[in-house]
Design a protein that fits this description.
By secondary structure, this protein is α/β, with parallel strands linked by helices. It is built from six helices and seven strands. The chain is elongated.
Length: about 210
C-alpha cells in the first residue's frame, strides 16, 4: 500500500467516533454494520460482545474489499454489552425497556463489556475484551422520571450514557472509563499499534 494507511471505523456511533477522534485519528470512512445484535439464548455477556464485534468487523471488511479507495484499510469494530450478573440488558429503544434497565441498575453493581476487533490490511483479525465494573446510586422516582423524560437513554446499551446526565448516577468505576462510553481507548490503540497502524500520525496536527 502506497502512502498513508487507511482507517475505517465499523460503527455509526457518534460516541465511538468522538473517542477515535480523541486519540488523534480521523477515519477515512464509517462502515456501520447492519447486523442482528440480539443475544443468543443463554449467551454470556463477554461471548456476546466478542461475537458481535467480530460480525461487525466482517461486515465492514466485505464493503472495504469492493472499494478501491479503502482496499487494504485497517478496520476497527467494537460492541458494548451492559450486564447485571449474567443478564444482558438491552439497547433501550422503548420507554419501558429503559425504565426496566434503570430499576435493575439502581443501587447495584453492573459490568460493561466491550469487545474490540481490528482487521489488518492482510485481513488478519485481532480481538480484545475489556470489562469495567460500575456502581449506580439508588435512584429515586424523581431521578428515573426525569432521566426517562430526557430521552438520553434511547439506543444506549443498558439504557444510559455515562458521558451524559447519567454520569451523575455513577458512584464508582473500576476499570476503563472510555470502555463505558463505548470504546476502551488504551486497548483499541494498543491493538492498532501492535499491528503496525501509525497511531501517532495525527498527533502533530491535533492542536
Amino acid at each position: 500500500m502506497i502512502g498513508r494507511a487507511r482507517f475505517v471505523l465499523a460503527s455509526g456511533s457518534p460516541r465511538r467516533l468522538a473517542l477515535v477522534n480523541q486519540a488523534g485519528i480521523e477515519p477515512d470512512a464509517l462502515r456501520p454494520a447492519d447486523i442482528d445484535e440480539t443475544p443468543k439464548r443463554g449467551e454470556l455477556p463477554r461471548a456476546c460482545a466478542t461475537r458481535l464485534a467480530r460480525s461487525k468487523a466482517e461486515a465492514a471488511l466485505a464493503t472495504v474489499r469492493i472499494d478501491e479507495e479503502l482496499k487494504g484499510a485497517y478496520i476497527l469494530a467494537a460492541d458494548t454489552v451492559v450486564a447485571v450478573g449474567h443478564r444482558i440488558l438491552p439497547k433501550a429503544e422503548l420507554l419501558d425497556e429503559a425504565a426496566q434497565c434503570l430499576r435493575l441498575l439502581s443501587g447495584r453493581n453492573h459490568r460493561v463489556h466491550t469487545a474490540v476487533c481490528v482487521v489488518t490490511p492482510k485481513e488478519t483479525f485481532r480481538q480484545r475484551h475489556v470489562e469495567t465494573r460500575v456502581r449506580f446510586k439508588r435512584l429515586s422516582a424523581e431521578d428515573m422520571e426525569a432521566y426517562l423524560a430526557s430521552g438520553e437513554w434511547r439506543g444506549k446499551a443498558g439504557g444510559y450514557a455515562a458521558q451524559g446526565i447519567a454520569g451523575t448516577f455513577i458512584v464508582k468505576i473500576v476499570g476503563s472509563y472510555s470502555n463505558i462510553v463505548g470504546l476502551p481507548l488504551y486497548e483499541a490503540m494498543s491493538l492498532l499499534a501492535g499491528e503496525g497502524y501509525p497511531i501517532h500520525f495525527g498527533w502533530l496536527n491535533a492542536l
